[in-house]
């Protein structure tokens, strides 16, 4: 990975097995810093693979992320890049983006 292999606190499959459908694998890392490193390197390391890594969001965060999905897509097409972190859509400086005052 480009850094020492992170220690896993635990890992297990999620949900029931369904024929022809892959199951999520939940992984818990004991150190937040390891999670950040894994998430930052995931895209590069998994390029060409048939799986990906995503952050497990709270229901509140997932709702907030979905709430602005269409606006984020429109802004992306216009050249504005946002990312979702800490419960907020953020601009390139890391500040929460205000959708009401684009």
Task: Give structural attributes.
single chain; two-stranded antiparallel ribbon; alpha+beta; two-stranded antiparallel sheet; 14% strand; 102 residues
Give a topology summary.
Layout (H helix, E strand, L loop, with lengths): L9 E4 L11 E4 L3 H14 L13 H9 L1 H9 L5 E3 L2 E3 L12
Antiparallel strand pairs: 1-2, 3-4
- Pattern of helices and strands: EEHHHEE
Low-confidence stretches: none
Alpha-beta classification: alpha+beta
Largest sheet, strands/sense/barrel: 2 strands, antiparallel
| DSSP helical segment count | 3
Instruction: Tell me the total number of β-strands.
Output: 4
The termini sit apart by 38 Å
Strand content: 5-15%
Compute the average pLDDT: 88
Helix share of residues? Answer: 25-40%
Strand order of the largest sheet: 1-2
**Overall shape:** globular
Task: Give a structural overview.
It is a single chain. By secondary structure, the protein is an alpha+beta fold. Helices cover 31% and strands 14% of the residues. The strands form two sheets. The protein has a two-stranded antiparallel sheet with strand order 1-2. A two-stranded antiparallel sheet has the order 3-4. A hairpin with a 2-residue loop joins β3 and β4 (88-90). The protein starts with 9 loop residues before the first strand and ends in a 12-residue tail after the last strand.
């Amino acid at each position: 990975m480009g850094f020492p292999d992170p220690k896993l606190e635990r890992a297990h499959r999620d949900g029931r097995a369904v024929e022809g459908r892959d199951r999520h694998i939940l992984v818990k890392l004991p150190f937040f810093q390891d999670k950040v490193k894994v998430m930052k390197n995931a895209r590069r390391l998994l390029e060409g693979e048939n799986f990906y890594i995503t952050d497990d969001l709270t229901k509140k965060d997932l709702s907030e992320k979905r709430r602005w999905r269409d606006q984020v897509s429109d802004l992306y097409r216009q050249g504005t890049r946002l990312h979702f972190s800490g419960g907020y859509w953020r601009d390139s400086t890391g500040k929460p983006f205000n959708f009401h005052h684009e």
